[in-house]
Amino acid sequence: MQEASLTTRELTVRLFRAGRGRMLIFLHGAAGLPGRIPFFEQLSTKYEVLAPEHPGFGTSANPAWIRNVADVAMYYLDVLDSLNAQKVHLVGNSLGGWIAAEVAVRNCARLASLSLIAPAGVRVKGVPMGDNFIWSPQESAQNLFYDRSFSERMLEQAPSEKEAEIQLINRFAAARLGWEPRWFNPALERWLHRIEVPTLVLWGDNDKFLPRQYAEVWQKNVPQVTVDVIPQCGHLPHVEKAELTARKILAFVDRH
Amino acid sequence: MEFIFFHLMPYRPLDMAERAKQRSAWVVLPNRLYDPQRGADEYESYIGQLAYAEELGFDVISVNEHHQTAYGMMPAPNLIAAALIQRTKRVKIAILGRALPLVNNPVWIAEEFSMLDNLSRGRIIAGFVRGIGTEYHATGLNPAFSQERFQEAHDLIVAAWTRPGPFEFEGEHYNFRYVNLWPRPYQSPHPPIWIPSQGSSETIRWASHPARKYPFLITFSAQELVVRYLEMYREEARKHGYEADGNQLGWAVPIYVADSDERARAEAAKAIESLFNDYLNNPWEMLLPPGYMSLSSMQRTMKVRKSLGTQARRQTIDDLTASGTAIIGSPKTVRERIERVREATGFNRLVAMLQFGVLPDELTRRNMEMFAAEVMPHLRRG
Questions:
Q1: pLDDT tens digit sequence for B334-362
Q2: Which pLDDT does position B308 carry in this prediction?
Q3: DSSP state of B281
Q4: What's A31's domain CATH number?
Q5: For A248, how many CA atoms within 13 A lie in the half-sphere containing its CB?
Q6: Which of A135, A165, A180 is nearest residue B285 as measured by Cβ atoms?
Q7: Are the C-beta atoms of residues B371 and B334 closer than 8 Å to each other?
Q8: If you ran DSSP here, which 8-state letter would residue B246 be given?
Q9: Got the DSSP string for B332-361?
Q10: Measured distance CA(B273)–CA(B29) in Å, rounded
Q11: Does the beta-carbon distance from B290 to A168 stay under 8 Å?
Q12: Considering its fold, how many domains does chain A have in total?
């Protein structure tokens, strides 16, 4: 897996790139671009995987004009154009799933399929999301995973000074995009019918940040949708059940 | 020196055992812990204290705004200011301050201050703040836009006070086809604007700009930080080519005075420790939501902050007096402590918080009386 950069209309972001084949783009969640995780390795056995770090996150450029998720979605439409991408598989987790959906409702012309892993972006009244901005680091670690060993590992890994700085930058970027309305766009649900490509929605059965009931909104409104709930799994299936999640996504994108 | 009697109006009957089970006395503290009968008593008692401060010769009495917290019972401080106008004759009334970014129509704030200014015939001082970090959890407002909204709301309010209306306001966050204030402010051109702050270089630079020269009040900080931030204001003023006047520099500090150091310590200990540990202390996720401060300020603050919130262990009265976060002692001790900061900074506005935490009425009034009799006259002369 190579680290590279990607410049689109003078905006440069960091990016992981691996594998050969048809293009698969992964959009990361609020915590930022994960490192060289096994999930990417597995996807890159059959596809050219691109995992950009969103503008405002980590060491990517942070232009003042990025003020909400709609801006990020328009930016990624520019990216698809500048790559001259033909039938890309778009994958996103949480915030990244929300961005991917906002891309798809605007324009599916360059997409082959959409895979959303516990996407944010919609709200179910009466089923509150977790308040990740008030959680302590301990609560975050506990609430993001079903398997306690993942929580413990997350807490044991004391970040270096540089990593702590990146975490703070990511927290700032996430708040700008997701604080209000909290992690959703009130208009998005109305437009989900515009997603014209086959869509896979994966959800951890024990997600404490975005409860599994949220999958029902996608089930109901996206035309060509398959919803698949992963048992004994929290909000980050691509980390907690990496092998299984990658397998499910590969099986899905292989067909489209 | 000018003396401002400042009040937070804490909810003193708070069940501290229940409080200890919560992550904070802000936002998430269950409001079943608020008893309206006792709350009403608190309001009555506190308004009495504020009115009494006029009798004792304070120059200004002052209230402030916080939301969803036992730390302060004034989500709408202008309501208290309106009550105080009726209870007082000559004292100035400072609202320190209204949290501008939290409202979607800052013209309302301009209107309220303007009404108060008319009702009091020009006794109003308008404090402008952003609210503390917890306010962004309480209101849901995005802290990423707090600074921008503060600047823009300020510009809009000052324009509403000074520009002939109707006029149109075109901003990023605020857009109004008609801005046309009825009533206009009583004072000309408008009520004085003061800026209370926990200290941030961005705020200090902005407040000290020659176009504004707003008094900057550093709130509840260790003495070394008080001196550093007031000196920073002076430096910024010099960069702008002028020397800051002492009236542009203020210090907000809890003070307790009794006839001896020992007695002051014994009487104030429980109350001052409750203020900093039970009422004010917050986990950093609540106190510093992302974007509330700039990234660089946030990184610096997380290293240097000693006095405010987020401490790992309880602060004792000795910690708080040693750091100069609170001033507690005999009249001589209190005078000397204040003099020391005046010598270092030339500040001229003392925002004295003489009721704090669970400090009961009787001790509060004795504290006020002794401060007015034994501390104020000496410092006025200097």
A1: 999 999 999 999 999 999 999 999 999 99
A2: 47
A3: -
A4: 3.40.50.1820
A5: 22
A6: A135
A7: yes
A8: G
A9: HHHHHHHHHHHHHH---EEEEE-S-TT--H
A10: 19
A11: yes
A12: 1
Query: Above 70 in pLDDT, residue B333?
Result: yes
Considering only the beta carbons, identify the residue of B23, B283, B290 that sits closest to A175. B290
Q: What is the pLDDT of residue B202?
A: 86
Instruction: Give the closest of A136, A168, A176 to B285, CB-based.
Output: A136
Q: Which residues contact A139 (CB under 8 A, 6 or more apart)?
A: none
Better-scored residue on pLDDT, B312 or B103:
B103
Q: Which amino acid is at A184?
A: F
Write out the two tokens for A211: 């409860």
Interface with A, mutate which of B22, B27, B68, B142 (most A CBs under 10 A)? B142
pTM of the model: 0.96
CB B324 within 8 A of CB B245: no
Six-digit token string for B240: 């702008």
Alpha-carbon span A198 to A115, nearest angstrom = 9
* pLDDT tens figures, A132-182: 999 999 999 999 999 999 999 999 988 888 998 999 999 999 999 999 999
Q: How far apart are CA B96 and CA B62, in angstroms?
A: 7
| DSSP string for residues in B208-249 | HSTTT---EEEES--HHHHHHHHHHHHHHHHHTTSPPPGGGE
Contact A165 B299 (CB under 8 A): yes
B174 and B151 Cβ atoms separated by less than 8 Å = no
The answer to whether the Cβ–Cβ distance between A175 and B286 falls below 8 Å is no
Name the amino acid, one letter, at A143.
Answer: N
How many CA atoms within 13 Å lie on the side-chain side of A179? Answer: 24
Give the pair of three-digit tokens for residue B158. 């000052």
- Name all domains of chain B by residue range, CATH numbers in brackets: 2-381 (3.20.20.30)
Q: Which residues make beta-bridge pairs with A5?
A: A14
Yes or no, beta carbons of B144 and A174 under 8 Å apart: no
Q: How far is B160 from chain A (nearest CA, A)?
A: 28
State the burial class of residue B247 (Cβ atoms within 10 Å of its Cβ: 0-12, 13-18, 19+): middle
What's B278's DSSP letter? Answer: I
Q: Is there a contact between A175 and B295 if contact means CB atoms under 8 Å apart? A: no
Cβ separation A182–B143 shorter than 8 A: no
Q: Min CA distance, A146 vs chain B (Å)?
A: 23
Of A169, A176, A180, the CB nearest to B141: A180
Asked whether the beta carbons of residue B291 and residue A175 sit closer than 8 angstroms, the reply is yes
Structural domain harbouring A61? 2-254
Question: Which comes out higher in pLDDT, residue B174 or B297?
Answer: B174
| Cβ within 8 Å, pair B140-A168 | no
Specify whether the CB–CB gap between A141 and A159 falls below 8 A: no
d(CA A240, CA A237): 5
First to last CA, chain A: 24
DSSP-derived letter for residue B369 is H
To 5 degrees, how large is the angle CA B73–CA B74–CA B80? 120
